[in-house]
Amino acid sequence: MEITASMVKELREKTNAGMMDCKKALKETDGDMEKAVDFLREKGLSQAAKKSGRVAAEGLTTAYISEDGKKGVVLEVNSETDFVAKNEEFKEFVAETAKIIIDKSPSDIEALKAVEYLNLGKTVQDILTEKIAKIGENMGIRRFSVEEVSNGVVSSYIHGGGKISVIVALESEGEKEALEELGKDIAMQVAAMNPKYISRDDVDADYIAHEKEILVNQALNEGKPQNIVEKMVEGRLNKELKEVCLLEQAFVKDGDLTVAKVISNTASKLGKEIKIAGVKRFEVGEGIEKKEENFADEVAKQMTV
Questions:
Q1: Residues 282, 76: contact at Cβ < 8 Å?
Q2: Translation elongation factor EFTs/EF1B dimerisation domain location, by residue (predicted)?
């Protein structure tokens, strides 16, 4: 039987399942609408789709480094509640997905979802959909980012059991173990201090102009004379840049040193130059607007599922 677009649309409206899942269900049931509904329910796809309207702002981040230490990934997978983020199945899925990114090098989230998961004959998306139906919460792979070096190492640090994950890429021909230790220290620094930039060279002109304008207005509002405002602003801007630029931050393990000094000290010991080639920091749920739901409405929704 020919499966038409209107049939797919009707089934989707009945079940809230994905378009491709609806098409597959209709093919499997030879176009029988009621059997197709049952097919989707049996697969857990209908339930999973109904849960997809809820905001997933909790979850886990993780970081994973390749065996040779030259490639690393940081990944965020969201769930609706912190409770599910502590679920062993969920944690395993996040960890295995990070390994898949390193091994298969998908270009983006959609490509990642299409990759086979652990030679099971199912894709990453298939496994995720199954877990949504089984665990009973909406979940989603939100983002990932990869850093890679030809010479040097990529180090990682995971804070709070996955609340924050960081990878730091160091380019150097220095000894691997010393570089890995330095990289982990810098990753811890990034987790704690959340710098916006690596160095002053990375700070864009718009950011500088914007901050200067704010600082000038602050000084004028404080009643400072115009002739000293410029010097004051310069001083305040320098102080701010030391806070937002990683290399200029005070080192969390030793406040007498800057991060730049820690790197130069290690470089001197190894007799090799060291450069931070890249930094990525993911914090669970950052930038996601959590949807406030009325509890009574939520219960009513559950009763109609």
A1: yes
A2: 72-286
Q: Does domain 200-273 have CATH number 1.10.286.20?
A: yes
CATH of the domain spanning 5-51, picked from 3.30.365.10, 3.40.50.720, 2.60.40.1180, 1.10.8.10 = 1.10.8.10
**CA separation for the pair 220, 218 (Å, rounded):** 6
- Give the tokens for residue 210: 């914007």
Q: Alpha-carbon distance 152 to 73, whole Å?
A: 16
Residue with tokens 């059991």, as numbered in its chain: 161
For residue 283, the cross-strand partners are: 164
- What is the tens place of the pLDDT at every residue in 237-274? 999 899 999 999 999 999 999 999 999 999 999 999 99
Range list of β-strands (E), the chain: 58-65, 71-79, 139-148, 152-159, 164-171, 250-251, 254-258, 275-283
The answer to whether 75 and 144 are in contact (CB under 8 A) is yes
CA 47 to chain centre: 26
- Mention every residue, 6+ apart, whose C-beta is less than 8 A from residue 8: 19, 22, 23, 26
